[in-house]
Amino acid sequence: MANALMVDSVREFERMVRSLAGQPWVALDTESDSLFRYTPRVCLIQVSAPATRGANSQEAAAANVRDFLVDPLQLSDLSELGEILANEETEVILHAAENDILTLQRDFGFRVRRLFDTQLAARIMGRTGVGLAQVLLEEFEVVSDKRMQRTNWGQRPLTAQQRAYAQVDTHFLPALRMRQTQQLKAAGRWEEAQDAFRILETIEYTQPEPRTFWQMKQLRAVDERNLNVLETIWDWRERLSQRTERPPFKVLGESTLVALAQTRPQSVDELRRIPGLSARQLERFGRELLEAVRLGERRPVPQRPAAAKRSDSTLSAEGRRRFDALRRWRTETAAARGVDPDIVFSNETLLQISAGRPDSVAALAEFPAIGRWKAQTYGPAVLNMLKSRGKA
Length: 392
Hints:
The chain is of the alpha/beta class. The chain contains 19 helices and six strands. It folds into three domains: 5-200, 2-Layer Sandwich (Nucleotidyltransferase, domain 5); 213-298, Orthogonal Bundle (DNA polymerase, domain 1), CATH 1.10.150; 311-388, DNA polymerase, domain 1 (Orthogonal Bundle), CATH 1.10.150.80.
């Protein structure tokens, strides 16, 4: 495997775009720095494409690829790459595509118009162990360096280990896609996979809800009377994290926040007894923490937010019975196929069916996450079940 070309200048980017334009497929992956920044960003885009044009066969093209590592931290305009990904004549091969699709939308406004997701294909065929590292090991005897999963992709220059790890993530995807295409067609799952890919292409990035201290995993360990102090310390940590672009857990861990709220330290000496608070942290923002504790003590105890309604709680009693029956049928159908239940239908889709009560295969196919193949394959059983349980 030849070294990947590092694309970190306008000249190298233009050369890459010329080599990608008009290709039948490109393989794609991204690396982000979510473990190292408050606001994560795409720090690297891996691309693999046929090394030459007009290969005699898919096998030849998949066996002879050229790899690129695109550095978006050094390039201000990646729009030409976005145009290639949005070209319906070019298939974009990803593994576990959803996160990459959403982060590319978030950071660059990119859209993928013709997708092949190798992880989703593996799940449709009932494969277990569908993480990329496991698949590469089993299919190509390639061992991934697990240490790189927690590396800082925002650092520059990238190390040789980072570049090698990143290159492997896309280099073998074309060959994997070729094998899976043959397997899907042989198993009669090709149309199912194509429908699933088309649905996945339609996902939209939405801005996440603001973080609050109510989302803390250790919230139950805090006495009700100390929630005002916890909320104030949490807010202080969020502001510092945003200002310094550090992930909150690297400012102060959750256990330390809980200890501060429960003990309400009033002096630097008392702060020193807080577990997880280092001498360096004490020096940097010890007095800010004491001020946050005092401010929190003066605040009223916040009211707990109303519990979010479960999506199935909006169903009528009859709708709930339909949902439960559909879920049992879905579990049995998935087990018979040897796939995870959500490959047949997700719980959310079953809820939509239970509430919408389609009365034909055509009506079932109109649900966003179903598609023609599932409607035709599972439609008769689903409609029978809905009919047998009434439409009240």
